[in-house]
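Hello Y.,

Per our agreement to keep a running log of every chain we model this quarter, I'm adding this entry. I've kept the format consistent with earlier entries: sequence first, then predicted structure.
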Amino acid sequence: MPELHSELPPMAPPPSLPRQRLRYTRILDVAAGFVRKGLDSVVLSEVAARADVPLGTLYRYFPSATQLVLALYRKQLTELYAANSPAAPAAGTAAASTSTAAAPAKKSAGRSAKPPAADASGDVPAHALVGVVMEIFHMRLMQPAVEQCLNKVVYTKDTDTTKLLREIDATAEKAVTAVSGDAAISRVLLLTVTGLVQSVRCRRLSLFEAEEDLKKACFLLTCGRPAA
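Predicted structure for the entry above:
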């Protein structure tokens, strides 16, 4: 278990049966659309209705909105760690699907967490960056709700929430660098993420527009750049 996971509140493990796992994942995917608007917007009855699961089932997995938000954040952290680990396959591009989290998200094929291989022209393919950068983008959008949850839950004595979030940011930078193979590209993309998150929060851009801009940034930063 990654070190940062131990700083989050302990939770029951996800269900083991395939059908239950699908429902559990669908709840988390749908919940992301609510969490982006803040903790107060996470109404469990509405999440259950959108995810098409009985409310009792949702309560069995997540007895409170706080537990639902932190379970979603834990899932995204797991995928971020996977992207940062050369030895482990990434958890897929689930983050990109959270942009449509108001409806059940579509799973895409898993991507390799290793630095991307060059294509026939010798360029690093931009699509290899999109999954991990989009994951970080959606994590940043949810961060206010996550911080509210962390402040409400007494999980570890003397734990510094700010330090925890800084460590997550450092992990994000390592993950993008691992995929892009270039620390400068990583820094530029993360600054782009920060600006787009603020634009969405201030309603200067829609979520769709911000996602499209982020995809274009990935392509522009990798187009014509020879693989390392």
